Each structure stands twice: as structure tokens, then as C-alpha cells.
Amino acid sequence: MARSYDKITLEQRHIRFAQEYVKDLDPYRAALRAGYMYPGMTVEAVKTVGRSLLKRDSVLELIKIENDRIRSRNDGLVDKIIDEISSIAFFDIRDVYYNDQEKLGQLKSVNDLDERTARAIGSVDTATLPGRTIVTKVKAHDKIKALEMLGKIAGIIRPDVKISLSDSGNKSTDEVTRHTVVFVDNSKKQNDAITDIEPIASESDTEE
Fold this sequence. Notes:
This protein has 208 residues and is of the alpha+beta class. It has helices at 10-24, 27-33, 43-53, 57-73, 75-89, 115-120, 143-154, and strands spanning 121-129, 132-140, 176-184, 194-200.
């Protein structure tokens, strides 16, 4: 027997789901807040509903409308956030090194970084030498995550898709991976540009 929707139309529930989804991009919590938890339903059933809704073109269009509405209300802030994410997403490793002959291969001082490169940097390590301080290591923010976020904002990547970059063929394609890129001053130690890939436990069992 078809489920009763208590005077709330299917379209209205979809609209509510879209409104809730754009708050935290969590299909499970959005489904809960939109009223998809009925008596007798399990958590897994609600997760399934949330994931299924994100596969509907009509719901994706509603999410786009909500995102556009938020953008129109906070246009300046949204542009600033997108610009900040873009700095991380399109970060170029070459921009942290000097390219003049005198300092070739050395990491730039923080004061010598251009603005966009500086935004992409999470932290730096320094060493004190006689009469000066040099940068020995630079850690960039998560480039892959920033690209994923931009893709979702632009509508290139569906909201239910998670990007995973694995260094092993036996890792799950659903695995969420954090990528911390570390650049070491190669004037002191050759071939020390390191990509440290640290897997995080999949959220699919608890969040969606």
C-alpha cells in the first residue's frame, strides 16, 4: 500500500530536502530533517532514501535553485569563499620555490609568496641560521578536497559523488582520503617532495 504523505506533496518534501541538504551536504541528515524518518524505518533505510534523492534530476535541480538563492543573498561572501577555495584547488607547487639563479631550488620566504599561493598554504616550518631564518617545509591545504568542492558548486560533480585518490589498488573506491602535500627545500635534500596520503574512515556507514 502506498505511504501517506500527510497532506505534504512529494514535491514539497523534495523542496524541503533540498533546503536541508545545502546546509551541510549530508543526505542522511537532510532526509531526517525533511521528515523522511517514518515509524518503523531504520537508520539504513533513511540513508538509502537520502542517497536515492540525490540521484533524481528534479531534486538536483531544486538543490541548484537553493544554492543560487543562497548565493544571491550572500553574493559577496560566496564569491570570496569560492575564490579562497580556488586558490587551494589551483595551487601550483612551482610557486613556492625561488626561480632566480641565486636562490634556485630554495623555498620562498612567506613574505615573498604571492597572495593566492599564500592562501593555499596551511603551515610552514622554519630554521634559524646565523643572521637569517629560512623556510624548510611548506604544507599545502587539501587540493583534492578543494577541487571536489568546486566541482560540486559548479554542478560538474554530482553531490552524491566523493572523489578518492588511492595509492593502492586494494582500497575501496568509496574511501574518503585526505591528501596533505608537503614540499621540502630541495636545496638541502634532493627528491624530498612528499605526498603523504592518510586515509580517513569512510563516512558512508555513519553519515549518509
